[in-house]
Amino acid sequence: MERTFTTTARRSQIVRAAIETIADVGYEKASFARITERAGLSSPRMISYHFADKNDLLRQIVIEVFGMATERMTPVIDAEPTMAGKLRAYLETNLRFLRDHPLEITALTEIGPHLRGDDGEAYTSTGSQDHSASGLAEILADGQRTGEFRDFDTRSMAVLIRASVDAAAQRVRDGSDVDLDTYTAEVVTAIDLAVREADQA
C-alpha cells in the first residue's frame, strides 16, 4: 500500500492509541475494539485496513519506539570520543529514555512475550535480543583494545549490562517507586568500576 501523508498520519494515530491501550489494560485485553475507541475511529476495520493483523501492529509499535530511542541515544553516544564515554552514554541515555517514556516502555514489556519475529521466536527470546548485546560487546572490545577496559569476556559483560537496563524496564512496567535517576547513577558507577583497568578506576 502506497503511503500518503494521510495514511502515515492514520497509522501513527493507531500506533499511539495501541501503545496507550496496551499500557493501560495489558496485552490480553488490548483488543482492536478498545484501540479503535481510544483512537476515536469509527470501526476496527480501519485498523485492519492499515495493519495485516495484531502482530503487524505490535511490530510497528516496536519499530517506532526503538526508532525514538535510537534517535535520542545515537548522537549522544557517537559524540563521545572514548569507549568509556560511549558506554556511559549508552547507559545514561537508555535509562533516561525509560524514565521519560513510561507508556512506551510498559507497552513494550507487555508486547515482548507475544510478538513473533520472522523466525517465529518471541521478541523477548535470547536470540531476538542478540543484536543489543552484540553492539555492547563491540564497545567493550574496542575499550579493551584502547586499554580503557580490563580483560574480561565481552559477551558476558554485555549480557550483564543489558540485564541492568531490562530490570529497569520491568520496574517501569510494574510502577515501582525506584528513583530512576538514582538507579542510573548507581548503575553507571557500578559498570564503570566493573570494566575499567585497575589503574583507571
UniProtKB/TrEMBL annotation:
Organism expressing this protein natively: Saccharopolyspora dendranthemae
A molecular-function term among this protein's GO annotations: DNA-binding transcription factor activity
Alphabetic keyword roster: DNA-binding, Transcription, Transcription regulation
Protein name: TetR family transcriptional regulator
Name of one Pfam family that matches: TetR_N
Record lineage: Bacteria, Bacillati, Actinomycetota, Actinomycetes, Pseudonocardiales
Keyword Lipoprotein in record: no
InterPro entries: Homeodomain-like_sf (IPR009057), HTH-type_TetR-like_transc_reg (IPR050109), HTH_TetR (IPR001647), Tet_transcr_reg_TetR-rel_C_sf (IPR036271)
Coiled coil: none
Segments forming domain HTH tetR-type: 14-60
UniProt keyword annotation of Transcription present: yes
